[in-house]
Amino acid sequence: MVVRPSFSFEYAVRLHGAKGDNEIDRAAKFFLTYSAADKTIWYSMPENRLGQKDKRQQKVKITEKTGEFPKPLATRVMQLFQRMIQQTSYGVGEEGADGTTYEFGIGRAYGETWSPRERKSPLLFVELGESLKLIL
């Protein structure tokens, strides 16, 4: 899950196998990684520094925390995300200037939502992703 808030730093929560283990379905061990920028990546780019005197690319530091994740739980979380993404419809969505964009991906499948409010999918998946980062 990649999270892009309008006015704060971007971050990601990723469930994966060991480094170099590209066969996620066959992974022996699973890991949870939380990666966060120390400032907003979008505003660090020269083309987005409107009204700023300094138009140079700003450096952004990314910090990561990784921990082992129980295989049965990892398998279930991946199944849930895969099911949600398979049921994603790509019509005209609600979007605005303020809010947060959430991106979900598993394998080659991808889905996105903007500031969900209803107590159903995809808000439940946003909450699941947010709670996973608290484990680390």
Question: How would you describe this protein?
Answer:
This protein is α+β, with helices and mostly antiparallel strands and 136 residues long. Helix content is 23%, strand content 29%. The chain has 3 helices and 6 strands; from the N terminus they run E-E-E-H-E-H-E-E-H. The chain has helices at 41-44, 71-86, 123-133; strands spanning 2-5, 11-16, 30-37, 62-69, 100-106, 109-114. The protein has a 6-stranded antiparallel β-sheet, covered by helices on one side. The mean pLDDT is 86.
Provide keyphrases for this structure:
136 residues; alpha+beta; 6-stranded antiparallel β-sheet; 3 helices; globular
Quick summary of this structure?
The chain is 23% helix and 29% strand.
Radius of gyration equals: 16 Å
What overall geometry do the principal axes of the alpha carbons give? globular
Mean pLDDT: 86
Give helix and strand order, one letter per element, not per position: EEEHEHEEH
Number of strands: 6
List the helices and strands and how they pair.
Blueprint: E1 2-5, E2 11-16, E3 30-37, H1 41-44, E4 62-69, H2 71-86, E5 100-106, E6 109-114, H3 123-133
Antiparallel strand pairs: 1-2, 1-5, 2-3, 3-4, 5-6
